[in-house]
Design a protein that fits this description.
This protein has 451 residues and is mostly helical. The chain has a single domain (10-450), classed as Amino acid/polyamine transporter I. Helix content is 77%, strand content 0%. It has 18 helices and no strands. The radius of gyration is 21 Å and the shape is globular. Bound molecules: phenylalanine (PHE). Phenylalanine (PHE) is lined by residues 20-21, 23-26, 99, 102, 223-224, 226, 229, 231, 328, 331-332.
């Protein structure tokens, strides 16, 4: 078997894992969900669910991954004994399938980001006809750019963890954060922004238990932290034994929430500013007219108000978004590729290309049947598969894996683990409380249980 890669430092892991977590989910997906689910109430529920559920499950994935140092299927099998092995295979393969399906829709949206970035470059050099084509949602454009995005993703994954993933994650985050903060400052000078912030920051608590909102926030909490597909388990398997896992996990979770929250502070007011400038966002029934295209409508409208500088800001924004999408997509592709490499002995390069092209074919099917498949695949993977697989991960960390072995794993990198608050609470919490929360949200949203 090929030697396993490892992140070269704590910082490298934090950047790679945050790179996975921070992506279209934060900046494209989160604002759409906020805007379709009543503003502040969604923000509140999402944040609560991230703390109560997503962070503990992130820890389960990281601990299992680092212990087994293997791909998802092998990792789960390693901590299982006898009768739980079939469940380990089922969970592992379900995760691999879900990661692949997520990539299949994600790459389409990422392709839009590349196209909009190039569109701004076209504006800059005065090629406005070309820019218009790039920013229209035509079939040809979508096909071209989804392929381009796969080339990027596969090319990086083919080169392996240390060489490929680390390099891309290092420079991006600070730039993205600075740009978003600058845009938030700019938007505060615009008409309508204050109304956006009011909607975003004042939760109507009576909406919090709305079944659709809860299920949507549950899916978002999992999706945003890259949970319930095995990504974090595979990344965990590349962490050195000398690291303190609970702290690493907390850093990644806080960065992820922070960026999502900031993206909302930008996009929600941008909607109201666009509305004040005559763009229609909601229809008469109060539903978003084009939810998938929300940020592709309101952000360019905002950049337009900046005059010439807007073109440069737009170019920068969509370029950074493309890179943010790549650092996430490589972590999705890594799940099936790690499996092909470690369980089926395929060389990494070959594995990356074969698996990558197979998933590209799925994307093409979605592009050709966009109306029927796009939303369906998103709901299937993020609202249902991810939380259910997350629940299964809790069962593995809490019920299947022996507690003394779990403690031993956590003690590496933190010898006093046994006396920490984390150890006093977390094992029982993932064992009992996390599965119950997921179960309750599902029951509630199918109206089988009233919370
Ligand atoms: N967390 C990523 C985002 O917010 C998406 C993702 C989901 C990445 C699942 C890996 C696995 O964009």
């Amino acid at each position: 078997m090929a030697a396993r890669g490892e992140f070269s430092s704590r910082m490298a892991f934090v950047l790679a894992a945050s790179g996975s977590a921070i992506g279209l989910g934060n900046i494209w997906g989160f604002p759409i969900k906020v805007a379709s689910n009543g503003g502040g109430a969604f923000v509140f529920t999402y944040i609560v669910l991230t703390f109560l559920l997503a962070y503990p499950i992130l820890m389960a994935e990281l601990v299992i991954g680092r212990h087994a140092k293997s791909d998802t299927v092998k990792s789960l099998v390693k901590i299982s004994e006898g009768s739980s092995k079939p469940l380990a295979y089922l969970t592992g393969y379900w995760g691999i399938l879900t990661a692949s399906l997520i990539l299949s829709f994600y790459a389409i949206v990422a392709g839009w980001m590349i196209a909009f970035g190039l569109g701004s470059a076209g504006d800059l050099v005065g090629a406005s006809g070309f820019s218009e084509w790039l920013t229209s949602f035509s079939l040809e454009r979508n096909l071209l750019f989804v392929c381009l995005f796969y080339l990027l993703t596969i090319g990086i994954v083919a080169n392996g963890v240390a060489a490929g993933i680390e390099k891309w994650s290092t420079r991006l985050m600070p730039m993205l954060i600075i740009l978003i903060i600058a845009l938030i400052a700019y938007i505060s000078t615009q008409n309508g922004a204050a109304e956006g912030w009011r909607v975003y920051l004042t939760p109507e608590f009576d909406r919090v238990l709305n079944p659709d909102l809860l299920l949507s926030a549950l899916g978002q909490a999992f999706f945003s932290l890259s949970l319930g597909v095995g990504t974090m388990m595979v990344y965990g398997s590349y962490i050195s034994k000398s690291e303190n896992l609970p702290r690493l996990g907390a850093t990644v979770a806080l960065m992820d929430i922070g960026i999502a929250f900031m993206a909302g502070l930008l996009v929600i007011p941008a909607m109201y500013v666009a509305q004040a400038n005559g763009v229609t966002i909601y229809n008469e029934a109060g539903k978003l007219i084009d939810s998938d295209g929300l940020i592709f409508t309101v952000l360019p409208a905002l950049f337009d108000t900046m005059g010439g500088a807007g073109i440069i800001v737009s170019l920068l924004f969509f370029t950074l978004m493309t890179i943010a999408a790549v650092t996430s997509s490589i972590s999705m592709l890594e799940v099936p590729v790690a499996h092909a490499q470690e369980s089926h002995d395929l060389p990494r390069k070959k594995a990356a290309w074969i698996v990558g092209v197979m998933i590209l074919l799925v994307s093409l099917i979605i592009v050709f049947n966009f109306g029927a498949l796009f939303g369906f695949v998103i709901d299937l993977t993020t609202k249902y598969s991810e939380p259910l697989i997350g629940l299964l991960f809790c069962i593995f960390a809490g019920w299947v894996w022996r507690r003394d072995a779990l403690l031993k794993e956590l003690q590496q990198g933190n010898p006093t683990m046994e006396n920490t608050l984390f150890w006093k609470i977390w094992p029982t919490y993932v064992k009992v409380v996390c599965p119950l929360i997921v179960f309750a949200v599902f029951m509630h949203s199918f109206e089988l249980l009233k919370i």
